[in-house]
Amino acid sequence: MEIFDRRTASILTTIVLFIAAGAFIYFAARVLIVFVLAILFAYLLEPLVSRFQRWTRISRGSRSLAILEVYVILCGAIGGISFVVGTQVIDEVEGLIRILPGWLDRFTSGQIALEIGSGRGWSRSTQEWAQRFLSEHSGIMLSWLGSAGTWAAKAAQNAIWIVLIPILAIFLLKEGRAFSEDILEMANRRQQRQFLAGIAGDLNDMLAQYIRSQLILAGLSVAAYMAVLSILRVPFALALGSAAGVMEFVPVVGPLVGGAAILGVALLAGYHHLWIVLAFLIAWRLMQDYFTTPRLMGNTLKLHPLTIIFAVLVGAELGGVVGVYLSIPIAAALRIVWMRWQRVYAPPAIKVA
Fold first, then answer.
1. How far apart are CA 137 and CA 132, in angstroms?
2. What angle do CA 175, 180, 183 make, to 5 degrees?
3. For 223-273, what is each residue's pLDDT tens digit?
4. In this model, does residue 350 exceed pLDDT 60?
5. What Å distances lie between residue 147 and 31, 141, 144, 189, CA to CA?
6. Which contacts qualify for 327-333: CB closer than 8 Å, 24 or more apart?
7. Distance between CA 285 and CA 18 in Å, rounded?
C-alpha cells in the first residue's frame, strides 16, 4: 500500500520547491538585488551599445569594442559633470553637514519655533505652544533620525556591491542575447517556446522603456530643482536640487522625501519664501505625474494606480529603498507573465448562443 499517491507526492514536491526557492531568495537577497540592478543597468546601456556596434568605425561588428566605447564615454561624461558642478555640490553638502547638528538642537529644543514665530509675526502664545510641542516630541524625532542613521550606515556598508553592478552589466551586455536564446532552446514544445519568447520580448520592451524613462525624469528633475532653487536663492540649492532629483528614481516615495528635505532645510535655515517653494514643488510634481511621465512611459507598464501603490508598499516592507525601486518593474513583469499565460495556455471561452 502506497503512503502517498502520485497527486499527493506532486503537491508536496511543489510545496517543498516553493519553500526552497523562498529560502534561497531570503538568504541570497543581497546578491539577487545586485544582479537585478545590473540587469537594469544593462538595459539602460543596450541602445547605445547596439548603435555603436553598427555605426562607429572602431567598433563596427564588435560587441566588446562597442561596450568599451560606451563605458569610456560614460566615465568621461560623469567626470565632466563632476568637474563642472560636483565641486560646488560637495562644498554645499559639507556645509550642510556642519550646520545640521546645530539646527537639530534648535529644532528638538523648540528654539526654532521662537525664531520663526518672531520673524513671521506669530503671537506669543502660538510661539510657546509650538516650542512645547517640539520639545515634548523630541524623543520621537530623535528616534526617527536614529533609524535614518542606521539605514544610512547599512547602505554605506553595502556600497561595495555597487562596484559590481557595472562589471556584471558588461557580461550581460555581451552574452545576454545568447543566454536568452539558450533558455528558449530548453523549451521542448512549440507552445512553451512561444510562451517564453513572448515573455522575453515583452520584458525587453518594458524594462528598456522603464529605465530610459526613469533616467530622463531624474535628469529633468535635477535640472529643474537646481535651477529654480538657485533662482529663488534657497540655501544649499545645488545640494538639495541634485539630491531631490536623484530621488526621482525611487517611485512614489522618492519625490515625497526629496520635497520634504527641501522644505525642511529651507525652514531650518530661516528662508522667508516657503510658500513659493511649496507651490513650485506641487506644480513640478503635477507636471511630472500628469504630463511628462505619461508621455515617456506611454502604455509600457499598464498598471492601475492602486496596483502601483500596493507594489511600492510591499517592496518597501521587503526590501527598503531598493525594494521600492524594483517593485514597479516586478509588478509589471508579473502582469506580462500572467497575460502571456492567458494567451497561450488558457482555454478559449465557450460562446453561449
1. 8
2. 125
3. 999 999 999 999 889 889 998 988 888 777 788 888 988 988 888 887 888
4. no
5. 24, 10, 5, 52
6. 327/251, 328/210, 328/251, 328/301, 328/303, 329/40, 329/206, 329/207, 329/210, 331/303, 331/307, 332/206, 332/210, 332/300, 332/301, 332/302, 332/303, 333/203, 333/206
7. 41
Instruction: Provide the grid cell at 28.
Output: 541570497
Which tens digits make up the pLDDT trace of 15-61?
776 677 666 666 666 777 778 778 888 888 888 888 888 877 777 77
Please state, rounded to an integer, the average pLDDT across all residues of the chain. 77
Helix 160-185, helix 29-55: angle, nearest 10: 70
> Domain boundaries in the chain?
31-149+160-186, 190-347
Integer Cα distance of 250 and 256 in angstroms: 10
Q: Count CB atoms within 10 A of the CB of residue 226.
A: 21
Query: What are the distances in angstroms from CA 77 to CA 82, 84, 220, 321?
Result: 8, 11, 17, 27
Output the CA angle 188-193-196, nearest 5 degrees.
Answer: 125
State the Cα–Cα distance between residues 191 and 83, nearest whole angstrom: 54
| Three-state DSSP class for residue 57 | coil
Has residue 279 got a pLDDT over 60? yes
Cell of 139: 524623543
Report the sign of the C-alpha dihedral through residues 173, 174, 180, 186, in that order. negative
CA 95 to chain centre: 27
> What are the φ/ψ torsions at residue 250 (nearest 5 degrees)?
-90, 110
φ and ψ at residue 241, rounded to 5 degrees = -65, -45
Residue 331: left (phi > 0), alpha (psi -120 to 50), or beta?
alpha
Q: How many CB atoms lie within 10 A of CB 181?
A: 11
